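quick q for whoever's on today - can somebody do inverse folding on this one?? i tried earlier but teh output was garbage lol. tokens:
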């Protein structure tokens, strides 16, 4: 749709970045009367369509634009939203460059709420004010009760608060009891009350908080690793830095690895600051997203709590980022633009000149190394808060235990559970395996049931009566006969999943109230409710996957039983030991956070493994030191760099041909080694064949330039996809 065609002299050409995988910004002409500046959100024609983009650069055409300005199409509209800050634009360019992706692909992550760019649409609210209705039903009474505060509420808010349908509310509007009133379009975010729920810090906490406050006061870039045992009060401490930042008139972003953690956390922030913070993750509803986006862009929202995607909100005035549980691999985005939110948070801080706090009881080896070498401020909390003490950790040597076939709890663990239940304590049994059994096998012919589209076994989910692929979601009904030999009733479940463990628990402790926390059984609100119930002591035994390992505070929990302490060790990737250590430490750390001391029993076939002995001895440094030495020896991260090139395609022959060309195109250098091509450990996912190259180099090598040069040397066929993963965490 072309509008007026402005005259040809002295026209301004603008570069507009569009949220698509295009090689650069596109040129448009600025129509007369429009005054564009970098950062303006604009609508522009793109082929036959219209697209929303951001002005990246403004130049007068004297600079010799490549295309005749008269051939350029004009910008159609400029949106009233505050322009994207220069910092944010630099951040987008930086992330694109670092992750070897296109700026448009990064911009796409920033333009997820296009409604927020226009003028807010106003809404009507209703307030109690008119005469009482003639007929007061119980439902109407509830609505009137909620409207009794004489504030104006939207129809849907009132209905939700009162637990009635909107027609009940509308009935009261018609009766003239509720009076209409123009609402401000979005409920504003209240200023946090910095003194509201402040706690009295211990001496050690006070010292730590002081260090973080000093970083905030310095108003320059710095990174602190807030390194404290589970339950030491890391959250209370960094909330002091949050308060100092808000007091200085700046915004704070607190990143959490898991949406399931947010409800408990938001409630805690509300207690501390007297008002709920802005919340940002995939489960937030569209209208609320719009509210948050606007409040972040205007600077009104001072505290934002979010998942990794919150990094791409256009903060007007950022002053601090906290990355809680910084070691969590959930911070790595594995598809689209592949990035690590912790690392990008640090980049954001360095571009914006503000501090970043990383909090963990089990830091990543990367952050640990930076802390002990002095690149990061190392802020340490050694003791649990108050009377709580760290749990005692005891290994159970499974080579000496032989639970009867089809059961998984050893005698010592069984005894400890019984004892704990008798003392009215809560028990957590940790098994990081969803479903009933990880493998289904035919007793007659030995056939193992695999996914038709992936190179993976199907996992039995007995509650759903299905065999499910954990990689692509493929699901079949559980067959009654072996698909290979056709014999009936010969299929057996091998190994435990949480559902099977639950059967054993039900049989052994029929009186105990039990709940399973596994991502395929509880999600969203259900999960948040379950977490609350556990914290309130409504369950005696919790069976959980890694969902329960993270950050939860269950005061009544006194026994943790790790059913299979060796699971994570067998997957062979470079971080296997590190991750197993972290998860065992975190999951053990759920025990004894209240007034009663806790313990953790770990069933393992490798009780002499260095990570188990470090755990038992409570000597984290011993493990980290050994692990760092091993990485140094092998020149693996954090003592070297890695990048993965994952190439996938549905057509095997096209893929093979491309792989051969790619292998020949490796740029010559002595500073990096290219390993592969090798079939990725999961060589087939969703019917696409996958092959991986691994680039290994010294720490100071420019991995991005190497990858770009490599890919520039080959044409990628349409059916083939290449993705670059800088600093890979997943090797599947
Ligand atoms: P972490 O983040 O290190 O696991 P938290 O900050 O969650 O530890 O603290 C653990 C528990 O102890 C929480 O319930 C917290 O409110 C409480 N707590 C920590 N420090 C204090 C303090 N100084 N005063 C009162 N309660 C505290
Ligand atoms: Zn599959």
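ok took a stab at it. sequence:
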């Amino acid at each position: 749709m072309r509008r007026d065609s402005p005259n040809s002299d002295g026209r301004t050409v603008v570069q507009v970045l569009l949220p698509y995988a295009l090689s650069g910004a596109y040129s448009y002409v600025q129509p007369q009367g429009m005054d564009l500046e970098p950062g303006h959100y604009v609508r522009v024609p793109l082929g036959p369509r219209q697209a929303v983009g951001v002005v990246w650069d403004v130049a007068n055409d004297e600079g010799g634009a490549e295309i005749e300005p008269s051939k350029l199409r004009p910008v159609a509209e400029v949106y009233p939203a505050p322009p994207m800050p220069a910092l944010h634009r630099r951040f987008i360019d930086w992330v694109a460059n670092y992750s070897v992706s296109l700026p448009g692909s990064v911009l796409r992550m920033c333009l997820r709420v296009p409604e927020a760019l226009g003028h807010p649409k106003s809404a009507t609210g209703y307030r109690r004010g008119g005469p009482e209705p003639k007929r007061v039903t119980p439902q109407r009474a509830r609505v009137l009760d909620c409207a009794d505060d004489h504030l104006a509420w939207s129809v849907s808010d009132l209905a939700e608060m009162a637990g009635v349908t909107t027609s009940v509310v509308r009935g009261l509007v018609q009766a003239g009891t509720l009076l209409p009133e123009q609402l401000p379009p979005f409920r504003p975010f209240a200023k946090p009350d910095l003194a509201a729920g402040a706690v009295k810090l211990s001496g050690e906490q006070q010292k730590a908080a002081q260090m973080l406050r000093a970083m905030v006061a310095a108003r320059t870039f710095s990174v602190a690793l807030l390194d404290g045992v589970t339950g030491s009060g890391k959250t209370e401490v960094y909330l002091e830095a949050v308060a100092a930042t808000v007091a200085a008139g700046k915004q704070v972003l607190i990143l959490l690895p898991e949406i399931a953690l947010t409800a408990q956390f938001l409630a805690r922030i509300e207690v501390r600051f007297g008002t709920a913070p802005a919340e940002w993750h995939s489960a937030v509803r569209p209208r609320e997203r719009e509210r948050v986006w606007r409040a972040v862009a205007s600077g009104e929202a001072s505290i934002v709590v979010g998942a990794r995607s919150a990094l791409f909100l256009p903060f007007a005035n950022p002053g601090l980022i906290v990355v809680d549980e910084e070691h969590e691999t959930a911070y790595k985005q594995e598809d689209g633009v592949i990035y690590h939110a912790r690392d990008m948070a640090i980049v954001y801080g360095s571009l914006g000149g503000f501090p970043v706090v990383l909090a963990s009881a089990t830091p990543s080896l990367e952050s640990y190394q930076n802390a002990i070498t002095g690149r990061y401020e190392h802020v340490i909390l050694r003791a649990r808060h108050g009377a709580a003490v760290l749990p005692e950790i005891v290994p159970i040597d499974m080579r000496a235990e032989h639970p009867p076939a089809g059961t998984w709890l050893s005698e010592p663990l069984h005894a400890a559970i019984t004892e704990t239940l008798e003392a009215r304590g809560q028990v957590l049994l940790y098994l990081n395996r969803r479903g009933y059994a990880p493998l289904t096998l035919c007793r007659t012919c030995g056939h193992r049931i695999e996914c038709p589209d992936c190179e993976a076994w199907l996992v039995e989910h007995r509650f759903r009566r299905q065999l499910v692929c954990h990689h692509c979601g493929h699901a079949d009904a559980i067959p009654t006969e072996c698909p290979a030999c056709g014999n009936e009733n010969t299929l057996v479940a091998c190994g435990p999943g949480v559902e099977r463990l639950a059967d054993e628990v039900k049989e052994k402790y029929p009186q105990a109230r039990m709940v399973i926390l596994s991502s395929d059984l509880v999600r969203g609100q259900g999960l948040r409710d379950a977490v609350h119930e556990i914290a309130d002591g409504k369950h005696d035994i919790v069976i959980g996957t890694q969902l329960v390992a993270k950050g939860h505070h269950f005061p009544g929990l006194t026994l943790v039983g790790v059913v299979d302490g060796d699971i994570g060790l067998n997957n062979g990737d470079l971080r296997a030991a590190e991750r197993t250590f972290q998860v065992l430490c975190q999951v053990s750390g759920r025990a004894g956070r209240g007034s009663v001391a806790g313990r953790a029993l770990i069933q393992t076939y490798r009780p002499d493994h260095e990570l188990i002995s470090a755990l038992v001895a409570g000597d984290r440094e011993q493990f980290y030191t050994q692990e760092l030495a091993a990485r140094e020896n092998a020149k693996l991260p954090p003592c070297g760099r890695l990048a993965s090139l994952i190439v996938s395609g549905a057509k095997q022959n096209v893929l093979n041909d491309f792989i051969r060309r790619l292998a020949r195109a490796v740029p010559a250098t002595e500073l990096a080694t290219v390993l592969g091509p090798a079939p990725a450990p999961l060589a087939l996912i969703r019917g696409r064949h996958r092959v991986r190259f691994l680039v290994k180099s010294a720490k100071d090598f420019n991995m991005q330039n190497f990858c770009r040069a490599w890919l520039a040397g080959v044409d990628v066929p349409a059916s083939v996809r290449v993705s670059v993963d800088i600093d890979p965490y997943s090797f599947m």
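fwiw Residues 451, 453-454, 456, 469, 471-472, 474 surround zinc ion (ligand 2) (CB under 6 Å). also The domain at 203-381 is CATH 3.40.50.300 (Rossmann fold). so keep that in mind when u check it
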